[in-house]
Structure prediction request, 295 residues.
Amino acid sequence: MLIVENLHKKFKNFELKNISFKLNKEYCIILGPSGAGKSILLKCIAGILYPEKGRIYLNGDDITHLPPEKRNIGYVPQNYALFPHKNVYKNIAYGLIIRKVNKIEIEKKVKEIAEFLNISHLLDRKPNTLSGGEQQRVALARALILKPSILLLDEPTSAVDIKIKEEIIAELKKIDYIPVIHITHDLAEARTLGKKIGIFIEGELLAFGGKEVLKKPNNKKIAKFLGYNIVDNKIIPPEDVILTDGKDCKITNVIDYGFYKKVFVEYNNTIIVAYTNKNYNIGDYVSVSFKDLVK
Prediction:
């Protein structure tokens, strides 16, 4: 179990404020916009940064000020940090070699983790010959082979295309035997992977819980980040906005997702978002109503 209690950290011009949560053997998504402080939180847990206040406990031990190598934490940074001069096998085996594990045991463990992550065919190759998704899986293998007490992932799919992202998510779903903290700004990743979800905005953890955190935002900051509309002081999801032909409100933008369109509409001197399968275009005029008012 990971316990973070009242964590404070000043870093350059940024500050984490009073961060507290508990995590068992669950896949946790920390979701928030760029610059919210998510990576700083991860580095405090990993031991790369030390907090000014608060405590961090892992499986009952206070690790707040332990150096990284004594925390038994698997950490995969955004840039993967693979050794360019070593092949995949040696990259994955590196931690075991440092721990002076015998060669037969190393070979067994490398083959097991490579098979688990579908990279057995890459063991003789150098990192610069791999795709972004392959490099990500090698970095995961290098972290997992040491049997960490917790795995920390810093935006693990940010540098790959959609197809590779889907493949990596499929591999990440396999990791259900240790706690995982995965930071991202991608709502689809949160919905797909998160058993626990934290919403992180401006250095504060504003919500933490199950997937209801995404469905029922408890304040306007969260609602705005998640793409909800704030209308007359009410939080209204885009799917509850009804558009009909009319002359009241002008459409300012349309994003076509194939099965539906995301439409941006001027409404009472603000921009609101609606989902529709109708063929509206920029410059069209519509009338706007809301499901809760209709009911």
Remarks:
- DSSP finds nine helices and 16 strands in the chain.
